[in-house]
Target: Ribose 5-phosphate isomerase B
Amino acid sequence: MKIGLGSDHGGYNLKKEIANYLDEKGIEYVDFGPNNSLESVDYPIYGEKVADAVVNKEVDYGILCCGTGIGISLAANKVPGIRCAVVSDVFSAKMSKAHNDANMLSLGERVLGRGLALEIVEAWINTEFEGDRHSKRVDMIKEIEKKHSK
Ligand code: RB5
Model:
């Protein structure tokens, strides 16, 4: 499994914690930036970069971090094919994969403590899409995307 990481300045430190966690677990990742926390950057740039990498299959999944997890997820979700879930608890992390087939996860550094954030990442990585009745609903989401893409 290969994961794409991205953040803005508000999520930079959490992204680094996640990178350390992935290193410890021996999980491959690519960090799409930014490369330092000092500069204020625009989260849509990094949300799009990681989302592009997921749809182009450079990576299998993406994990994003900003202050709340919200802005960067909104940007990622504009890329067709992306289902990016903003998550602040372990149950939702599991469900976002099991039922919604989320291919990206977004976390808020100003919302979550390090411990919970890493538990969420672990739960999300280790949960599989259940398919079955959920496939029909995910397909319906894809149809909406198609209908509204010009
Ligand atoms: C940056 O200050 C902050 O707005 C950003 O990290 C994020 O929380 C936006 O959704």
Residues 8, 10-11, 43, 66-68, 70-71 surround D-ribose (CB under 6 Å). The radius of gyration is 14 Å. The chain is about 45% helix and 15% strand.
